[in-house]
């Protein structure tokens, strides 16, 4: 009996792994499709072959400039932002044990945004690396504020969410005050507040990637401990997982990821909330699969939203965050009504 | 594997609630801790499991000071089932049980045949085979308690600590959980459980430890330590002692 049970157990686990590879495979194919469309569509349109030729040197210099200097790095930036927010969200949801947690709702994005906007206003033309560094520092600080509030996990989901609302409102007010009192272009301010990828390029991708990839790997390395932490602090401790230390590491990683995303794309909302839930729907609640699936899902969401944002009022563009909010807000309502 | 506390003092929210408790649970023993609410039972159990750090004193597991051991090493020898368990996890029973293998895993190392065997043994011991793919959310209280128990068993502990494992269960499911524990105990597992039901405690315990105001009030086999004056002192109400006509176990009852 136990022999057949063991066989069944193996096949069940194999089935779940299969599910993970199927879903992430589908998401990767979709991501590539969005990538090709992102190179083709925008203020000027190219055919698929023409757009892909633009990835290589030579050929039409105009196409090359638009594809290689603008659209392709922007697509990469979108992937980095989406993956960062989604992984941050998946970490936060388990660390504060609340399915409604995400960097925006907990005020972590606003803390990062405060750092970034202070730098934008005080040091006009600051290097991208500086902005990303300050954003990370702000995000980590925001994460540690949440850690202080949620210490030992004894705080209720309601109080934590309210604390996040308070932090977001406070930092948000300071951000708007700073932007309004400076001579920053309205377009830049609006893009920052709503969240968007207007004007991002290779500099952002090359600065962000060396932070984002190790941070996502760190999140993946935490996944066993996150699985234990999801069961409760005492049980995690009984399983040899130190809850407080795990929470500290996870909040630091989530803060850094959210901070990088904010420095690149401003205050993009809902991606960190929605992506882990979509991923959970696909692969279940095991963080070994959830973290990578969330990353791919977030990348897909942000690049798709950016593509749409560039097309709806062409040749002008909407801030991408408007699209993620338009999709994310109804999803949040659905969660509140039917899942919690 | 035996478990020993030496002069253990523990605080909860800044107040010392366990005062210099010394006790020893022998290898293979079935010990039950009883006592009124807020007497420090759960805190004592958490201290024994190294879930919390003592203010003073130490805990020895198999003769080794538990504070000096790696937390994963402790988790391979000793499992604890806390009182407050999440009601809202959307996990399949089998997935939950697999998480009991956490202390045996190394980073990025795939599961081994030993892991699978431990999970199967835990599922068999708690009679969960028919429920293994069901979500915890859809289980009854007794089934869910068995699933949590299986999680702890998958750790393959030598010592199992349980905090009120029968609370919220009807009498049949209480007995069911206790019977599982007795079977495991007879196979060599050292069991320490906090229980509220004195007759259940008397029936299953080799050894009854009474905690009152953070100190050991009585400690010994149920037939020896259970008497009306002691229980009246600990629980603060008049008690009556009956005897189970079949087994001879003492059955304490409130006599008010």
Strands, helices and their partners?
The complex is a heterodimer of chains A (340) and B (256).
Chain A: H1 2-40, H2 48-53, H3 61-95, H4 108-122, H5 128-149, H6 157-181, H7 186-194, H8 202-221, H9 223-229, H10 233-238, H11 243-265, H12 271-283, H13 287-311, H14 320-339
Helix pairs in contact in A: 1-3, 1-13, 3-8, 3-11, 3-12, 3-13, 4-5, 4-6, 4-11, 5-11, 8-11, 8-13, 12-13, 13-14
Chain B: E1 3-12, E2 15-25, E3 30-34, H1 41-48, E4 56-61, E5 64-65, H2 71-77, E6 78-81, H3 93-99, H4 113-125, H5 141-154, E7 159-163, H6 171-186, E8 190-194, H7 198-204, E9 207-212, E10 215-220, H8 222-225, H9 228-235, E11 239-243, E12 250-254
Parallel strand pairs in B: 3-8, 3-9, 6-7, 7-8
Antiparallel strand pairs in B: 1-2, 1-4, 4-5, 9-10, 11-12
Structure description:
- The complex is a heterodimer of chains A (340) and B (256).
- With 340 residues, chain A is mainly α.
- Chain A has one domain: Orthogonal Bundle (ABC transporter involved in vitamin B12 uptake, BtuC), CATH 1.10.3470.10.
- Chain A contains 14 helices and no strands.
- The radius of gyration of chain A is 20 Å and the shape is globular.
- In chain A, 54% of the residues are buried.
- Chain B has 256 residues and is an alpha/beta fold.
- Chain B has a single domain (3-85, 157-254), classed as P-loop containing nucleotide triphosphate hydrolases (Rossmann fold, 3-Layer(aba) Sandwich), CATH 3.40.50.
- Chain B is built from nine helices and twelve strands.
- Chain B has helices spanning 41-48, 71-77, 93-99, 113-125, 141-154, 171-186, 198-204, 222-225, 228-235; strands at 3-12, 15-25, 30-34, 56-61, 64-65, 78-81, 159-163, 190-194, 207-212, 215-220, 239-243, 250-254.
- Chain B has a six-stranded mixed β-sheet, sandwiched between helices.
- In chain B, helix 3 runs parallel beside helix 5 and helix 4 (113-125) runs antiparallel to helix 5 (141-154).
- Chain B starts with a strand and ends with a strand.
- The model of chain B has no long low-confidence stretch (mean pLDDT 93).
- Chain A binds chain B through residues 1-2, 5-6, 9-10, 12-13, 221, 224-225, 227-228, 230-232, 234-235, 237-242, 284-286, and chain B through 46, 49-51, 70-76, 78-82, 84-86, 89-91, 94-96, 99-100, 102-103, 105, 107-108, 111, 113, 116-117, 119-121, 123-124, 129, 133, 151-152, 155.
């Amino acid at each position: 009996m136990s022999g057949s049970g063991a066989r069944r157990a193996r096949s069940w686990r194999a089935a779940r792994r299969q599910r993970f590879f199927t879903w992430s495979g589908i998401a990767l194919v979709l991501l590539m499709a969005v990538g090709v469309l992102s190179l083709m569509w925008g203020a000027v349109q190219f055919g698929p072959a023409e757009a892909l030729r633009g990835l290589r040197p030579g050929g039409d210099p105009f196409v090359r400039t638009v594809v290689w200097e603008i659209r392709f790095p922007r697509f990469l930036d979108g992937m980095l932002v989406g993956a960062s927010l989604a992984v941050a969200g998946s970490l936060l949801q388990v660390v504060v044990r609340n399915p409604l947690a995400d960097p925006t709702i907990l005020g972590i994005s606003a803390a990062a945004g405060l750092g970034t906007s202070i730098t934008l206003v005080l040091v006009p033309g600051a290097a991208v690396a500086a902005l990303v560094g300050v954003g990370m520092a702000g995000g980590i600080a925001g994460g540690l504020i949440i850690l202080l509030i949620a210490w030992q996990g004894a705080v209720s989901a309601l109080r934590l969410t309210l604390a996040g609302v308070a932090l977001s409102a406070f930092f948000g007010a300071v951000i708007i005050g700073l932007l309004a009192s400076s001579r920053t272009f309205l377009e830049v301010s609006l893009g920052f507040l709503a969240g968007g990828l207007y004007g991002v390029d290779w500099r952002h991708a090359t600065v962000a990637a060396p932070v984002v990839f190790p941070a996502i790997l760190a999140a993946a390395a935490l996944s066993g401990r996150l699985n234990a932490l999801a069961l409760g602090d005492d049980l995690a401790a009984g399983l040899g997982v130190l809850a407080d230390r795990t929470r500290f590491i996870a909040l630091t990683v989530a803060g850094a990821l959210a901070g990088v995303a904010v420095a690149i794309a401003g205050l993009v909302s809902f991606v960190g909330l929605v992506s882990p839930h979509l991923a959970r729907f696909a692969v279940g609640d095991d963080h070994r699969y959830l973290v990578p699936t969330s990353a791919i899902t977030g990348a897909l969401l942000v690049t798709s939203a950016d593509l749409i944002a560039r097309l709806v009022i062409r040749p002008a563009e909407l801030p991408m965050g408007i699209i993620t909010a338009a999709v994310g807000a109804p999803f949040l309502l659905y969660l509140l009504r039917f899942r919690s | 594997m035996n478990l020993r506390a030496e002069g253990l003092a523990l605080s909860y929210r800044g107040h010392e609630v366990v005062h210099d408790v010394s006790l020893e649970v022998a290898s293979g023993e079935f010990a039950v801790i009883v006592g009124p609410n807020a007497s420090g039972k759960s805190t004592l159990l958490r201290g024994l499991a190294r879930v919390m750090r003592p203010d003073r004193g130490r805990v020895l597991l198999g003769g080794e000071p538990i504070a000096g051991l790696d937390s994963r090493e402790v988790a391979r020898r000793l499992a604890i089932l806390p009182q407050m368990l999440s009601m809202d996890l959307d996990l399949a029973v089998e997935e939950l049980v697999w998480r009991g293998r956490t202390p045996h895993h190394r980073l990025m190392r795939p599961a081994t045949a030993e892991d699978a065997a431990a999970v199967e043994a835990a599922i068999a011991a708690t009679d969960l085979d028919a429920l293994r793919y069901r979500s915890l959310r859809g289980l009854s209280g007794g089934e869910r308690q068995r699933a949590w128990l299986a999680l702890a068993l998958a750790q393959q502990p030598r010592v199992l600590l349980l905090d009120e494992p029968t609370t919220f269960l009807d009498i049949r499911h209480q007995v069911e959980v206790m019977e599982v524990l007795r079977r495991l105990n007879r196979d060599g597992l050292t069991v320490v459980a906090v229980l509220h039901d004195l007759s259940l405690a008397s029936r299953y315990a080799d050894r009854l430890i009474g905690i009152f105001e953070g100190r050991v009030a009585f400690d010994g086999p149920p037939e020896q330590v259970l008497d009306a004056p002691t229980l009246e002192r600990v629980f603060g109400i008049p008690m009556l002692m009956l005897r189970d006509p079949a087994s001879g176990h003492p059955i304490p009852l409130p006599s008010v």
